[in-house]
Amino acid sequence: MKKYILMTLVSMLTVSSAFAERELSRLQTVETQSCENSELQRTILATADLVMFEEKNLTVLEEGLQITSEQKAAGLHAEVLKTAPRSSVKSYSKTVERAEADAEAGKVGVTAPAKFDIVYVVKDGSGQRKDAGRITVDVTCRVETRTVNGQEKTLHSAQLASFEVKAKGR
Amino acid sequence: MNMNRLISSFLSASFLLSTSFAGPLVNKLGKNPYSAQISAGLESVIGTAKQPVAGTSIAFYETFPSSSYVSLKDVQMVAKSDDSNSVVLVDYVSVPAQSSGAAALGLRMALAPQESRLEASQQLAENGLIKTGDILVSARPLFANSLQYLALQLEATHISMAVIVNENGRKVVYNMDIPMDTEMLSGAKLGFGKSVMDSNHFLSDNRNLMLHVLRPRFESEQQKVNMQKWLERALARAREKKIYPSQISFNSDYNSPMYREKDGKADLSFIADTARLMLGQGLMANQHLQMYCSEFAWTLLSLRNCDPDAKDTVKDLSKGKTPSCISEFYKPMQMFGSAFSSGKAGDEDLYGMTDGIPMLVSQIGGSPQTAMQLFDYALPGVDKEAKGLSNGHKAVASMMAPLIQQANGYFKLTLTRNAPQIDGARAQLNPNSMRNYSPTAFVVHAGMPDSVNGAKVAQKKMDYVVTIKYVPKAKLKDLQSK
User: Fold this and answer.
1) Measured between beta carbons, which residues in chain A are less than 8 angstroms from residue B412?
2) Contact in structure between B270 and B258 (CB atoms under 8 Å)
3) pLDDT at position A64, please?
4) Which letter, b or e, does each residue of B253-279 get, where b requires 16 or more Cβ atoms within 10 Å of its Cβ?
5) Looking at beta carbons, which residues of chain A come within 8 Å of B158?
């Protein structure tokens, strides 16, 4: 029973966060295994899916591309192809060690933002390519120690700090 | 009259003209011949449901105890006005007091013309209804009686801070937020960094938005002066677009504040870093700051004792020290407080973030049966359709339903006044979540009673001022002029 109530409360806080996200559904958090570049890149694709969170039947990306509801209903849509790190990722890497150390010291460790490109294409209902471009995202990695089920654990998460949609054909 | 006196007299006249231009606030507070129509009008825009004790009314968990309303004695108001831009103040009672000396639950509404947000912002500032440092809570009234977890949050979803600025001889209220982005800060009328509560956040879902104005309890005039300086610097930094999101960005995980305690001591270095950013210095204690909306407000309020122009403060900050003037605005809150068991008025954890529903109910002076009815009303065990809420959130709410029933049980347990049992439950529950300062935490502070058993509640750091609702001018005309 006690465990159940504990679960309730922990979930309540999480739900509180979830609702707050509705205010800014473009800004999302994804749990990661570490702050390594490769791990971030792996989760960027997941983040891209979250960025394109369904809202008013149009994804955020589609809204950024000025795709209308009518066009979407007719089959026009965006697809994410791949992610690519930008040069700033090198300077980001230099901040990972200190973020880990801050977390060990009981603080919240946050890295400087890393910039990635998410490459996408726009296709019509028949699969024909209509447009292409990239979304540039700034992602930070957050490291913290939390008590989970009575045990201290180091947790990592990637947070989307900002994004910008750049359509090639526009 | 010599030339100097002429110029002086001209300048005085110009100043008077420019400062007396703001429209008046129309006072329809208290009972008046239009009370019934006013209530009906409010209910039509905010939404109602059949509530125990009160009948059909606005949900009690989005209101405040009448005893928590701050005095408006220094606010300039008139009885009526022909100015179609006038903001009208009215009272609304959701749940009447159930016994002598108890509080009613309700709202003090400021009905503002939605077509004239800039003029409304000028009125609210010039007439003294909103002051620098006030907290603006975005609440979503049309989601009342839908998803239970929103009821637990008292419908609070976002927090902005108000900063009153003198521009062109006129006072105006700007909202200051994290994220410092277009969504929050780009005003429809005046542009980026000059949102008079008219950026997309405030406009896009106006039908389902009301803004509770909460006032921090500053202890001195100097604290108010300091807050003015810090908030003006925050506005300036936001307008420069240099610190966001490269040095400070939005934290979407409200369960992970930067505030941490180790061995009972809080690390406040992130507040010092925030001060550095406001002063145009670089970060020193952290590589990057991430905060959610209410965290940013709490952080700025924790600078209230620091004068950004004081040489010692600036020197400490530039040398990487956390100045001694930095102090927590309020102790970040636990989930549940001691108010319903062994708590004393002096406890810094008298109320917790999740105590809002029983805290409100306990102040109306009703019977335990009434309280249970209201708990069941707020947390009925089933969720209803929340039109406009995303599918993802509906899924979360559905998953939460059985868990929220447990909260209902905990609240009913508080009615037993069985202190050892309640304290035992709290002792198990609270250590499993971090201390926090969510948007709801601010609302709970404002709704707390001022005293318990005749003793002042030490924890309380906010008061309730008013709730702003923007409505079409056509709906306000009769209220303004009669």
Assistant:
1) none
2) yes
3) 72
4) bbbbbbbbeeeeeebbbbbbbbbbbbb
5) 20, 23
Residue B400 touches chain A, beta carbons under 8 Å: yes
- Cα dihedral angle (A124, A162, B386, B463), rounded to 10 degrees? -160
Cβ separation A107–B293 shorter than 8 A: no
Q: SS3 for B162? A: strand
Contact B256 A142 (CB under 8 A): yes
Tokens of B89: 């103040």
Considering only the beta carbons, identify the residue of A13, A55, A161 that sits closest to B245.
A161
**pLDDT band, very low/low/confident/very high, at B14 (cuts 50, 70, 90):** very low
Separation of alpha carbons B112 and B471, rounded Å:
6
Among B249, B292, B403, whose Cβ lies nearest the Cβ of A20? Answer: B292
DSSP states along A64-133: HTT--HHHHHTT-EEEEEEEEE-THHHHHHHHHHHHHHHHHTTS-EEPPPEEEEEEEEEE-TTS-EEEEE
Question: Taking 80 as the threshold, does the pLDDT of residue A14 lie above it?
Answer: no
Selecting from A8, A22, A95 the residue whose C-beta is nearest the C-beta of B390 gives A22
Q: What is the mean pLDDT of residues B404-426?
A: 88
Please name the member of B393, B403, B440 whose beta carbon is closest to the beta carbon of A7. Answer: B403
Residue A142 has pLDDT above 70, yes or no: yes
Put simply, whether B160 touches A (Cβ < 8 Å) is: no
Question: Minimal Cα–Cα distance from A29 to chain B, Å?
Answer: 6
Determine how β-strand B55-57 pairs with β-strand B289-291: unpaired
Q: CB distance A13–B201 less than 8 Å?
A: no
For the whole model, what pTM was predicted?
0.89
d(CA A106, CA A113): 21
pLDDT of B248 over the 70 cut: yes
Chain-chain contact of B153 with A28 (C-beta, under 8 angstroms): no
Residue keyed to tokens 């996200």: A21
Which backbone phi and psi does A86 adopt, to 5 degrees?
A: -95, 175
Domain boundaries defined on chain A? 2-167
B157 contacts in chain A (CB < 8 Å): 19-20, 22-23
Q: What phi, psi does B138 have (nearest 5°)?
A: -80, 120
B396·A15 Cβ contact <8 A: yes
Name the residue among B246, B240, B238 with its Cα closest to residue B177.
B238
